Amino acid sequence: MKHLSEYRDPDQVDQYVQEIHRTVTRPWTIMEVCGGQTHSLVKNGILNLLPESVTMVHGPGCPVCVTPVNLIDKAVYLAEEKGVMLCSFGDMIRVPGSGRSLLEAKAGGADVRILYSPLEAVRLARDNPNREVVFFAVGFETTAPANALSVVQARQLGLTNYSILASHVLVPPAMEAVMNDPDTNIQAFLAAGHVCTIMGTGEYAPLAERYRLPIVVTGFEPVDLLHGILMTIRQLERGEHKLENQYTRVVRAEGNPDARRVIDQVFEVVDREWRGIGTIPRSGWEVRRELARFDANRKFSVSIPKVPECSDCIAGLVLKGIRKPNECTEFGTRCNPERPLGAPMVSSEGACAAYYHFSSALSDCVE
Amino acid sequence: MQLTCPMPKLDFDVITLGHGSGGTLTHKLLEAGVFDLLKNPLLDTHHDGAILNLTGKTAFTTDSYVISPPFFPGGTIGELAVNGTVNDLAMCGAIPRYLSLSFILEEGLTMSEFWEVLVSIKTAADRAGVQIVTGDTKVVERGKGDRIFINTAGIGTLHPKADISVGCVQPGDKLIVSGNIATHGMAIMSVREGLEFETSLQSDTAPLNHTVQTLLDEFGPSIHLLRDPTRGGVATVLNEIARDRNSGAARIGIDIQQASLPVLEEVAGACELLGLDPLYVANEGVFLAIVAADVAERFVGRLQTLPYGESAAIMGSITTEHPGQVVLTSRIGGRRVVSMLVGEQLPRIC
To answer: How far apart are CA B153 and CA B134, in angstroms?
Structure first.
């Protein structure tokens, strides 16, 4: 981790903070799209280093938060009723479905396992030929290559007991959804650095042009974030609207061709429902039809009735940046990380949980 | 840990339900080695309980150990049980004296594994200077336990100079951490099924009683509070303190400095990779002390010369601001609330 220290250097941070204060002349509202950026902003206390006139809005880039209730219900159903070994990334298992969460299913005896890699799930499938192993393949473009690779690997190994329950979502359509909302007040985006590492930056220049706003591809360390915010504010102050790349040490314009190839091999673009937002056209990936045997949705022909989301939860407004988490009447009272009403309160990357954990009652830490 | 005592010759090599029945097999198990290994006059009576001769203020604690896996880099569940109980007593300002041990064994545990645990218990008890004076063994069916669980109780006599309670904590006091945090939790994570990663990390499980006793001898009532931040880590314990001290007149908050927190580089790196915050990761051979400001520098200086204290540091202070809350100043100068852990710390997706 030594190589990261220069991106956490207090002097460098201070220089960017000073420069931001010098540059800003009027109020600006900037959305950081990625939950990882939200996490870093609050964890490092960056929000209270910024001028009061700069408002950071936490966007829909937390995969845990936007995974539809119905899909969580499916995962719970597979674990409880079909007896599968349900493997998942850690923070997905506490997200409430319409009934139980995966964590509660686990407590009830279902075989739910927390893994760091879908390739580990392939190994479990190989070692347990008499069990059905399902990996809950959640995430943005960042987790897609490994999830896709697990299918490729399972096929190479000739496994018939491995499948994925895919809920992949894509960042650019979500940014469009935010901008198409008539109530939006977003004036610029920090685009998600790691998503661009995979996909490249090609999709973002047209967005900057169409919506006439600055988009700066930004990293996750304090120095990265402040540099990205400064680049955004410079554009805003000059009235520019172009795509810039702050995260040049990682992100290349063409992305990672190998990763994109394996994604194309396994997934195809589909309309996707986002929790709290609704269906966004061509905003997700699902397993290609010809690989249906690796798609848990098709393999188990799961059909779970859709349950309306909790009407008191304003997750959609929060995820689109129209309302702040602490402007919700349920925030911190009926809705808290122990009993979340909606998904943004669950993952530490979720906007509501981030507010709750890191800044709830510290008035001088949050504008 | 290496086996330092040879395992006795037995006509069984795995634990069966019969070993918990109280009958012949139980006796065979105990007589074959347990009593000999843990030998002391109080245990040697083989009675239903131990008769203790205590005077003055006495501290009494209990704990259960269910760690998975029971054998991990740097220790076993047995060492953990002894050290953990000893440390709970030391945190009360007591000098640990006597421990009880109850085993819940899962059918199928091998005798050599059980012996390894027993030997580690013996070694740990000797190191801490405590006696195991009573105990029990039960066996549960296969699938109804996780190889071995241990419940303990511990009794200690209060140090004459100790005056330790959350009520003694005052604004202006300094918060001291005795060593590198999160080491134990990450050593365990490194061998958990499905999460294995290569590391040379070892659990820092250790008896802290001798170190604490020396500090009490020298600093007495200037030590206002001692806590060992085991489950839930440093963040959880600090939140408990801030909340407990938040009723009545003198409400307090706690300020901590990220830059002053001692964390091994390897631990910090592993936490980063797994998406965990070292503040919430479990510790074993580490304690937190809240001491009067005027002794803080001397206290840390002395602690750094004592066993398990070489990385000690002042990591924060007690304040009247933000009562009931723990606030961290990050390395870059930003501030944020450090809240209590909700549920289990779960790794983040990205």
So the answer is: 10
- Looking at domain B166-338, its CATH architecture is Alpha-Beta Complex (3.90)
Rounded (10°) angle between helices A204-211 and A171-180 = 10
Contacts of A311 (CB under 8 A, 6+ apart): none
Partners of A116 on chain B (C-beta within 8 Å) are 194-195, 274, 347
Confidence of residue A365 (pLDDT cuts 50, 70, 90): very low
Residues A335, A266, single domain; the answer is no
Q: Which residue do the tokens 């911190």 mark? A: A332
A362 vs chain B: nearest CA distance in angstroms? 7
Between β-strands B174-177 and B288-291, what pairing exists: parallel, antiparallel or unpaired? antiparallel
Which pLDDT band holds residue A51 (cuts at 50, 70, 90)? very high
The arithmetic mean of pLDDT across residues A175-198, rounded, is 94
Last residue within a domain, chosen from A291, A311, A331:
A311
Helix A222-238 with A10-23: angle, nearest 10 deg = 20
Taking 70 as the threshold, does the pLDDT of residue A359 lie above it? no
**Quick one: A113 and A237 in the same domain?**
yes
Low-confidence ranges of chain B (pLDDT < 50): 1-2, 350
Q: Do B336 and A45 touch (CB under 8 A)?
A: yes
Q: What is the pLDDT of residue B9?
A: 73
Complex ipTM = 0.78
How many other CB atoms sit within 10 Å of the CB of residue A3? 7
Contact B334 A93 (CB under 8 A): no
CA neighbor of A220 nearest in space, from A349, A337, A346, A63: A349
Q: Considering only A22-26, A342-346, B51-55, B260-264, which range has the smallest mean pLDDT?
A: A342-346
Pair A245, A328 in one domain? no
Average of per-residue pLDDT across A237-263:
96
Tell me which CATH code domain B17-158 carries.
Answer: 3.30.1330.10
Binary contact (A10, B333; C-beta < 8 A): yes
B325 to A47: CB separation less than 8 angstroms, yes or no? no
DSSP string for residues in B160-207:
TT----GGG--TT-EEEE-S-SSHHHHHHHTTSTTT------------
Is the pTM here over 0.80, yes or no? yes
Task: Pick the residue of A349, A362, A363 with the most B CBs within 10 A to test the interface with B by mutation.
Answer: A362
Q: pLDDT value at position B220?
A: 96
First to last CA, chain B: 36
pLDDT band per the 50, 70, 90 thresholds, residue A3: low
Rounded Cα gap, residues B72 and B94, in angstroms: 29
Domain that holds residue A137: 1-311
Residue with tokens 């949705």: A297
> Does the pLDDT value for residue A367 go beyond 80?
no
**Which chain A residues are closer than 8 Å to B346 by Cβ?**
90-91, 93-94, 114
State the Cα–Cα distance between residues A8 and B207, nearest whole angstrom.
36
User: Judging by DSSP bridges, how do beta strands A215-218 and B71-72 pair with one another?
Assistant: unpaired
Tokens of A196: 């661009």
Average pLDDT, chain A: 90
Tokens of B343: 């549920």
